[in-house]
Give the backbone structure.
Amino acid sequence: MDQPLTLDLIKREIAAWVNNYLDVPSDYYSGSKPCPFAAMAMKLEKVEIFLLDDPEQLADKYVEFAQSSAHLFVCAFSEPWADLEEVVQKMNIEAARDNVWAAAMEPGCVGPDDPCLDPNKWGQETGQAYPIVLIQSLSETASACECLRRQGYYDNLPTHFQEYVKERQDLNARRKENNG
């Protein structure tokens, strides 16, 4: 039975996802961790997690992130949001000037073909899927991606994911060019 989403439940589930999936080496990622930076950011308490009831709150979180010392904002939504990916892409173009960038994760969207991503394997707590937006520093993300690229992290990943990373790198290059 699905539990109602609460901030405490979301925080526990995000911690399980980080510790039991994102911080575990995977053949899918050429022996690397799916996100080699997530666990350290959590340990250093540089991750802030929110449960938002209204999509309008997302724009406020972009602004709040730009003024914070956090490395990551995780914004979970209590209700589905049909055009979340498109909204985030548009917001990213505007927010890039403030060195802010986000990634949307929508239930039902095709994710990595990594068998370890199965929620039953990493310890899903809610029993349900919900939209998440990860808000980060564009320049820090671009720098981390470049480091991972040099290590061969992206070599075996699908072309569409590599194109996604390149778009983000290009957005950061335009931000730097526009900011002098």
Summary: The helical segments are 7-22, 38-43, 57-66, 84-95, 119-122, 138-150, 159-178. The chain has a mean pLDDT of 89. The CA atoms of residues 93 and 171 lie 8 Å apart. The beta strands are 47-52, 72-77, 100-105, 132-137.
